[in-house]
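Friendly challenge for the regulars: who can give me the structure tokens for this chain first? No prize, just bragging rights.
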Amino acid sequence: MIFRSRAPVRLELAGGATDMPPYDKEHGGIVVNAAINKYAYTTLIPRADNKVAINSVNYNINLVLDDVKRIVYDGKLDMVKACIKLMQPDFGFDLILKSDVPLSCGLGSSASAAVSLIGMLNYVLKKKMNLYDVAELAFEVEDEIKNAGGRQDQYASAFGKINFMEFKGDSFVRVNPIPIRKRHRLELEKHALITHIGLRDSVTGSGKIVADQQKSYSKEEKKIQLDKMKEITFQMRDALMAGDLRRFGELLSEEWKEKTIMNPVITTDYVENLRKIAAENGAIGSRLMGAGRGGFLIVYCDDNKEHAVANKLEEAGTRVSPFAFDFDGMQVWETNK
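First reply, four minutes later:
Bragging rights claimed.
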């Protein structure tokens, strides 16, 4: 028997950074995000011995763990090793991992990979973890390998859907699907586009950017920005519920403005030039997702302007990627193939 799983990546729409300590515990964090039909896939094939052979397609790395009780973090697939260490499998297997999106792209791909693998091992080991358990352990994996970040990515990947999430410190998370009418969801998919602008530079990787943010959260001016981002997040939730999609688009840009005031390093001249090109050709609002400086830009376009915006952004060197929303979240299945 062969076991497979997949977990979606997410679009970060508003509130990112309020889901991280110490702000979430002291003031309560909220985010609006959406899972999309780009996935991290895991295939598990049991083997006769107790070794674990891992093949990461995206990283082009193959390695073998002779003893899962003696795992060493050495910079090679440490996230995968941490998942295995925390789940404690008692049998050997071949593991094949791949993702639909590039690495370090701002869509929470590492969290999706962790959710997919943990969900898979939960199923095979019959641990009976629920989605909250799977998401929380995937967050603990990031902590295990000392990669700073919040919790929204893991929960978005586990649950799927378009969500309003609440964070009140430690493991307190509440996932609230936003009730959006089907016609409004279809309009969102038609007029929104995501485009890959290139990878962020290694000097300012996501972990470093997030860690720098956390160090400054105690400063009063940073709290003021996070409070403003929270208010925008409430407004975005309400706009989506009301079907006010123009306002949704405007709020993308408003939230991005507050994020860049809080941490100017997350943007670049290139990013802002792309946003300007989009606005000049029919975009209502836009923002970069994830830690910043690279990855995917989301743009919400005026009526029937999405093609013009997409063409201009691709002329500027980006790569537009079609998408739809995912409402299934993490999935596991069996096959004989």
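The longest strand covers residues 29-46. The chain has eleven helices and twelve strands. Your move, everyone else.
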